Amino acid sequence: MDFQFRPLQLPEDYEAIAKVLNQFWSEPTTAEKLKESDDKLYEIGRTWTDEKGLLQGYDRERLVATNEQGDVIGYAWSWRAPWTEPGYLCNTLVVDTKYRKQGVGHALLQHVAQWGSSLGAATLVSELWDDDADALRFVKQRGFTIERRSFQSVLEIASYDDQLGLDLLLQIQSEGFRFITLADQPGEESEHKLYELYKHTLVDIPGYLGDVPDFTEWRKWYLNVDGYQPDLVLIAVHDDEFIGVTHLLYNTRTQGMYHEYTGVRKTYRGKKIGTALKIQAAQLAKRLNARYVRTDNDSLNKPILSINHRLGYKPLRGHYRIIAPLDKALSR
């Protein structure tokens, strides 16, 4: 099959890229959402190698594959942020299902690997669905190995019993804990307190890579993301300290919610704060008539997986995180 690569033509390509991405992503995106994310990004990259010879800094490469008619049939995006693990490049590579097994994906991967090599990167990292045997075979033939696994699960809100856990919530509140939303206590001071909570909890997530971004970047990429609403950021408070958080995102297209994050300060773990936050998240979804709450959790995050099971989350397919030494990906 004849195909060619070209740089992105924006904003015209957003619609076609979203169409290809939505063949694979569990939460659909739109051209508008892709543009909003792009608007947050740096325009000029800056990278260097540190004293260990590992790539640092930030940059990105994007391109599309088109068929003879000029239709977008594939998309590759390779990037690193200032907080990405040294030496690593993160990658999204998708090919329209009608055009798989015709060399498009291999050529896109080679382009990405050559670009990464020119920067001095050492490792490529990506994700794929654990039930996509063809994709798994493809990446294994090109030097990738499975580094870890995450599970996706969903809570169907129509059947959720919103009386579940009320006794636990009352008990926790009687012990001096309060539950608020970011809408109840808006402003930069609260956002800084929330950032400090994320700083202390992100690094404890099994499989978390890299550094925690600074406040400005955290605000762009962890707080003000697509679907963000201050009243969907649930916060546990003790003596005016933010000690736990659950962040929900609302998808207007599906009328569903994505459970983006739950974290509890280490000194408060074991007190069922995380359970209480997830109960409140389900109750909130019920009040807002959301269709579902979907989430992803690392396979080694036993506490959260246990909470999800008790609340009635049903398992779906999962993700593999895959990594490859860049030189191996180039040589295949």
From TrEMBL:
Alphabetized Pfam families for the sequence: Acetyltransf_1 (PF00583)
Domain N-acetyltransferase: residue ranges: 3-167, 180-332
CDD domains: NAT_SF
Highest taxon listed in the record's lineage: Bacteria
GO MF entries: acyltransferase activity, transferring groups other than amino-acyl groups
Acyltransferase recorded as keyword: yes
Name by which UniProt lists this protein: GNAT family N-acetyltransferase
Keyword terms of this UniProt record: Acyltransferase, Transferase
